Amino acid sequence: MNKIKYLYSVLLAGVLVLFGSCELREANINPNAVAEVQVNVLLPATQANMTWAIADFTSQSASSFVQYMTGTLNVQFNITTYEYLPANFQTTWNNHFYAGAMKDLDNIIKLSSENGSTHYRGVAKIQMAILLGYLVDLWGDVPYSQALDLDNFPQPVYDSGAQLYEEVQRLLDQGIADLESNSTFSPANNDLIFPAGNENNWRNTSRSRWIKTARAAKARFFNHLSKVDPTGSAEQALAAIAAGTFESNSEEMKVSFGNTPDAAGPWFGFLQGTFGQNNISVTQEFIDLLKDRVELGIDDPRLAYYVSRNAEGEYVGTPNGGTTVTNRSIVGPYIFSESAPTNIITFSEVKFIEAEANFRLGRFDAAAEALNSAIKNNILQVTGMPHLAYEEKFASETGSTIQVNGLEKIFTEKHIAMFLQTESWTDWRRSIPADAPATTSGLPNLQPAPGNLTDGAFPRRFLYPPSELDNNSANIPETSRLAKVFWDL
Fold this sequence. Notes:
Elements: H1 6-19, H2 31-35, H3 39-55, H4 57-65, E1 69-71, H5 74-80, H6 90-115, H7 118-139, E2 142-143, E3 158-159, H8 161-179, H9 199-223, H10 230-242, E4 253-255, H11 266-271, H12 274-279, E5 280-282, H13 284-290, H14 303-306, E6 342-345, H15 347-360, H16 364-383, H17 388-394, H18 406-417, H19 423-430, H20 466-471
Antiparallel strand pairs: 1-5, 2-3, 4-6
């Protein structure tokens, strides 16, 4: 688990002062101003902003959609009841994705191309690909080809999600090629994701982890096409994994922002104050899924790490869409601690992808083996130890047993393993049958909150923020919560 040191918190604060109140357009008025900063200074700011883009309000919202959490007041309650507004996504869109991480990544790519720092360029392209993939998964069609040059394109076109997914794969391939080449200089301890003491150590250790991360991301985004091309997407995902990706929990892409409150990650920062605790709560539905999961009296071993017992020693959640329960449990130490990791792409996720892809191809022995590994490694990651009773019941699949409700097993176990990760909402939408009514649930089966705005239809994407509605409305393709992104048939 990697530590983002205090000096990078200071650096991030400086970057946020520079860009924090900027619109996407304002951040591009003078592209050369940021380009004058060296790539070694830009890189850590992009990584901090990337983490916030993925794991702050984005994760809070996605976690309400899949009912890990329920909003009890204010914006979070609106998310839960599907009454969210364009303004809710302004900061995420501008400050974290575009003007935060992506503009700086674009400058790193340009500067690195000029000075031969191909390792910096490779890391930047991998990060850009991951962020671009998230943008498509959350909003659908988004600006990209013109979005980072608003001086020349003040109203950037919206590129189709399908085309942008092709760009994601190109960027990942290019990033791998850059990292496999020689470079004039390389990151070191300024790489906040996979830091190293010096450039030589980074080349010997961190470089291979970035390459493995890129292949894991390739597998993830290929797998997202499961509705569009069930066979081809599975084959491509498995090919990316076979090329060489994470082999254990120790290699995965996760980051910890430190072990003090002022250096902690997004979820801790949100929950440590009364605002967060009063506005969002673990759902009773998620607790029920893990409580007595093995048998009466034997819970899912991750429950105690995901959720803390209340003062009476019980796990008590808030019913989805309900009012706050006074003696409710709060988020547990796996998430709510200063040193808690922000998971971006994990080893267990890769194994779940491997299980699903093999299942879709009818390779049931391989699917069972990968599913068992995914569950065992996630329990080890979260709790620090195996749990034989849970593994006996849920991680002892064979080629025969997995053929019975296999996808339900895979998606449900992955849902538990991916607690509070934005990616879970993508998986849930993918598990809804194609062309099903808008009120159809994915896996696991969920019920909309009482009094929801959409008459029981499940939202399928975020809304474009006011900056786009005000400044680029002619190019916006869709404004409905119920519109599907391109892979969600």
